[in-house]
Design goal:
The complex is a heterodimer. Chain A is built from 4 helices and 8 strands, in the order ββααββββββαα. Chain A is of the alpha+beta class. Chain A has a domain of 110 residues: START domain (Alpha-D-Glucose-1,6-Bisphosphate, Chain A, domain 4, 2-Layer Sandwich). Chain B contains 5 helices and 3 strands; from the N terminus they run ααβααββα. Chain B starts with 7 loop residues before the first helix and ends with a helix. The chains are: A alpha+beta, B mainly alpha. At the A-B interface, strand 2, helix 1 and helix 4 of A face helix 1, helix 2 and helix 5 of B.
Chain lengths: 163, 125
């Protein structure tokens, strides 16, 4: 069980990155913080003088979101996507794509956020699935990827330590 | 979701590294090489219920990902662990983690704020 405040990052498959974090708040609040512009602007990517200059959210299935960050030197970085699934306060699925000028990975990715509330605390898991030529939907639905991941990261740690 | 600038070349390399690490046999081979230094295909095949050609296939994937190098000796071609790509993969994950730790710490503060406000109102939506 992950404790509050500890962030776990794993690579469930070669196309995914998953993060798990426990928050000391109900799921409905975490969900709102992730979907309401006035709340998003207060935490997501706003550091070292960067602010969210554009934060548009059309929270419905098929609705678009558009986020643009602006840095202290005027540089901008934008991204956006479309909501695919919205189950407040448990689950949010959306595509994400960075603007060409600042894309740090090729193509579009699919974000899945799940929230599980227990005793007033919420376990958040967010999985980013990167584009691939091969059936990424198959990868998403299969159970196979959930097990090997933490293990592969552990092995990696061990290997680095033993080198 | 936030900018981490790195080259497409690094991306390909990372893809190859993570793909190579996704297989349990290949992870076991790497662990073996980490402890024993270098080993031949025959030696590597021993602990697995696998043919040498099957092991050779795994070694090819690891070699392509730059995770191992192989000796010139045509007969033995001993495999050796290469630490650099592993270090890169680990560093990338670490950078990603740090970035999100910052985000989530700000989210913690926001949630505390939201809880305070809810308490003041004496209700929760």
């Amino acid at each position: 069980m992950t404790t509050t405040g500890t962030l776990e990052v794993t690579t469930p498959s070669e196309r995914e990155i998953a993060m798990t974090r426990v928050f000391d708040a109900p799921a409905s609040m975490v969900f709102d913080a992730w979907t309401k512009p006035e709340l998003l602007k207060r935490w997501l990517g706003v550091r070292n003088g960067w602010e969210m200059a554009v934060c548009e959210v059309d929270l419905k299935v098929g609705g678009a979101y558009r986020w643009v960050w602006r840095g202290p030197d005027g540089n901008e970085m934008g991204m956006g996507g479309v909501y695919r699934e919205i189950v407040r306060p448990e689950r949010l699925v959306a595509t994400e794509k960075f603007d060409d000028a600042c894309a740090w990975y090729p193509g579009e990715a699919l974000d899945t956020i799940t929230l599980v509330e227990h005793d007033g605390k919420t376990t958040l898991t967010t999985t980013v699935l990167f584009e691939s030529q091969e059936a990424r939907d198959v990868a998403l639905q299969s159970d196979g990827w959930s097990s090997g991941v933490a293990e592969s990261y552990d092995v990696l740690d061990e290997l680095l330590a033993s080198d | 979701m936030e900018p981490v600038s790195y080259q497409a070349k690094d991306q390909d390399r990372l893809d190859a590294t993570f793909a190579a690490l996704a297989d349990p046999t290949r992870r076991a081979i790497l662990a073996r090489l980490a402890s024993s230094g270098q080993a031949s295909v025959t030696e590597l095949a021993e602990p697995f219920a696998m043919s040498q050609p099957a092991i050779s296939k795994h070694l090819k994937v690891l070699e392509r990902a730059g995770l191992i190098s192989r000796g010139r000796d045509a007969q033995r071609r001993p495999s050796r662990l290469e630490a650099e790509p592993l270090a890169q993969a680990s560093e990338w994950l670490e950078r990603h983690r740090r970035l999100w730790e910052g985000n989530f710490e700000r989210l913690d503060a926001l949630l505390d704020d939201m809880k305070d406000k809810t308490r003041e109102k004496g209700e929760h939506r």
